[in-house]
Design brief:
The protein is an all-alpha fold. It is about 70% helix and about 0% strand. It starts with 6 loop residues before the first helix and ends with a helix.
């Protein structure tokens, strides 16, 4: 496999990294100004949402691809596919389950929200489909997609147990109880693994 990315792939990845990264920094800045939070408090307030994790990962992976231009390290093909799955799940879950519950109070917040939940979930998977290093994935990489969502789930459940606040209703133990939350978490893990398997199958189809 030639792990050097083409110039158009690098340019597109750099643009996506700036878009996602700019939205993240913009959200932190807005929280600092509007809520009077310090930098650490503003970041910590956002860290509980998988949307932030996924957009942050995309910003870092896409930034690596744009700046370094090699499918190694953070740009490894397995991480490229996993990051595309992360952000795709964010877009699908938000727009099917959560969009009606979110009402940004200002135009700026609405624009940032649009980047998080619509623009990046469309652009980064599209980048992966058309500009990724091709025929680079083996089936052993299917598990590369699971550590991040499982870590996030553990973090959210521990934090929610201490504070009583859960970022998403489908992992709210106080509302649903542990059996249902475990079922929901297992279902989402299966969704991530299934999408990663589909990505690997798509990548291998031309072999």
């Amino acid at each position: 496999m030639d792990d050097w990315l083409e110039p158009k792939a690098r340019a597109a990845a750099a643009g996506i990294a700036m878009l996602a990264g700019g939205a993240l920094f913009g959200q932190i800045a807005v929280d600092m100004v509007e809520k009077g939070r310090g930098l650490f408090a503003a970041f910590a307030g956002l860290f509980g949402y998988f949307t932030i994790w996924a957009n942050g990962i995309v910003a870092m992976v896409a930034g690596w691809c744009g700046l370094i231009g090699r499918a190694r390290g953070p740009g490894h093909p397995a991480l490229l596919a996993a990051s595309a799955v992360f952000i795709l799940v964010v877009g699908v879950v938000y727009n099917t389950l959560l969009a009606g519950l979110n009402h940004p109070p200002t135009l700026l917040r609405a624009l940032i929200d649009h980047v998080f939940h619509i623009a990046t979930p469309l652009l980064w998977p599209a980048w992966w489909l058309w500009l990724r290093p091709r025929r680079a994935l083996d089936w052993r990489y299917v598990w590369a997609v699971l550590p991040v969502p499982l870590l996030y789930c553990a973090f959210s459940l521990i934090s929610g147990g201490q504070t009583g606040r859960y970022p998403y209703f489908f992992i709210d133990v106080s509302l649903l109880g542990w059996p249902q939350v475990i079922i929901n978490s297992a279902g989402f893990a299966a969704l991530f693994a299934g999408l990663m398997a589909a990505a690997i199958a798509w990548d291998r189809r031309a072999r």
